[in-house]
Write a structure and sequence with these properties.
Blueprint lengths: L1 H17 L3 H12 L4 H7 L6 H40 L19 H15 L3 E2 L5 E3 H4 L11 H4 L4 E2 L2 E6 L5 H9 L4 E10 L10 E11 L4 H16 L5 E8 L2 E10 L23 E10 L1 H5 L12 E8 H9 L12 H4 L4
Parallel strand pairs: 1-5
Antiparallel strand pairs: 2-4, 3-4, 5-6, 6-10, 7-8, 8-9, 9-10
Helix pairs in contact: 1-4, 2-4, 3-4, 5-11
Length: 352
Amino acid sequence: MFDRVAEIQTEAEAAIGAGVNTAELEELRVRYLGRKAELTTILRGIAELPAEERGKVGGAANKARKSLESQLEAKAAQLDASELDARLTADQIDVTLPGAPSRPSGHLHLITRTMRQIEDVMVGLGYRVMEGPEIEHDYYNFTALNHPEGHPARMLQDTFYLQSHPEVLLRTHTSPMQIRAMETQGPPIFIVVPGKVYRRDSDATHSPMFHQIEGLAIGEGITLADLQGTLLEMLRAIFGESREARMRPHFFPFTEPSVEFDVSCFQCEGTGSLADGERCNLCKGIGWIEVGGAGMVDPNVLGFVEGNGYDAERVQGFAFGMGVERIAMLRHGVPDLRRFFDNDVRVLGQFL
């Protein structure tokens, strides 16, 4: 048994010396010093040996175990150091190489881009951009815009009211800024008002919250022809220089006369038919696409700000409004308004 201990030690020392990595060294530790190792079995069986062999075999076995543990520890430290050096060499960074390109920080939402484009067009025409509160008083949202209490037109713009303050609501259009702006300055006034508005609608072409741009021009000698020219210039800047604009009679409480304005279809060039003879799916074969509403400001509206110089016998003007989402849907072929608010990067990433 004594000779076998010496053989195990010699064999283990040779294997440890030839070890090339820490994983192999761990296998050697288990093989020669583990619970089922032969040397461990010998140490457990010392008590079964003849009395005259116990001391000699036990001493040799313990000495061999301690020696192997020491050699394994020293070899492990050596291999750890060499493996670390190898990793550091392989993973070293060449600081002379150019840095990795930065990830894009994002871009403006399509609605914001469309709204700013319209603003830029109107600023170029001499208009000033103004913003107003989204939480509005009934007076500015309805009454001062010729929507007296009980007027049927209020039902068409049903909105969200504050339960504790029935006279306070989420505005249904940006038109309240017409009154607010005229309260702060006299004529002439040329403004556009972008912003969020709220109504109780929700489907593929309507959202409870959407964006609108309102335009207002008041001064001496302004006519319906000025409105038509302004709309034509704006629509050509948005949809292309070859576009035409038309106005159709309509009704709005705060304008008289009132019109809806259309732009000639940019997909079929106003013909109503595509190149293959099929009916244009964008304008439904009509050749025109509805864009928004407009009209000459009703004298009753000017009556609410008459004290600021808006005498309906001396000045007049026009107003127009349109939904930003509708403009974006038309220009970019988006079929469902709700896609603008889903925050799906697959959709938003198409409009860099």
